[in-house]
Amino acid sequence: QVQLVESGGGLVQPGGSLRLSCAASVRLFSIYTMGWYRQAPGKQRELVASITSAHFTNYVDSVKGRFSISRDNVKNTVYLQMNSLKPEDTAVYYCNNFQLNWGWGQGTQVTVSS
Q1: At 112, which helix (H) or strand (E)?
Q2: Residues 68 and 80: beta-carbon distance below 8 Å
Q3: Nearest to 89, CA basis, from 1, 5, 11
């Protein structure tokens, strides 16, 4: 069973930055497309960003130009650099395999508030 451990969330003021990390306990991590997802209170979970094995990236329109996804295949870790944060970015953030559902970790809470 794959274990996904997210970290790096917190409380930040609008305009601030956070860097999220997600460590995956899986063999051959490098071959998988990974995604960062978020779920705000009362809303469905949504895909925020994805990164392929070749490091091609894709973003939901609402975070383009502000968020950046990256990966370290040696550390089996995927990152989400979040800049210019807005209150509407407040959510629990999760990572997962983009194509296969490995199950959800505990997530990391991001709260953007003054």
Answers
A1: strand 108-112
A2: yes
A3: 11
Instruction: Read off the pLDDT of residues 45-96 as tens digits, 9 standing for 90 and up.
Output: 999 999 999 999 999 999 999 999 999 999 999 999 999 999 999 999 999 9
Report how far residue 88's alpha carbon sits from residue 77's, in angstroms, rounded to the nearest whole number: 26
Q: Cα–Cα distance between 72 and 48 in angstroms, integer?
A: 19
- Which residue carries 């490091």 as its tokens? 55
Write out the H or E segment, with its range, that includes residue 46.
strand 46-51
Amino acid at 9: G
List the Cα angle 21/88/45 in 5-degree steps: 60
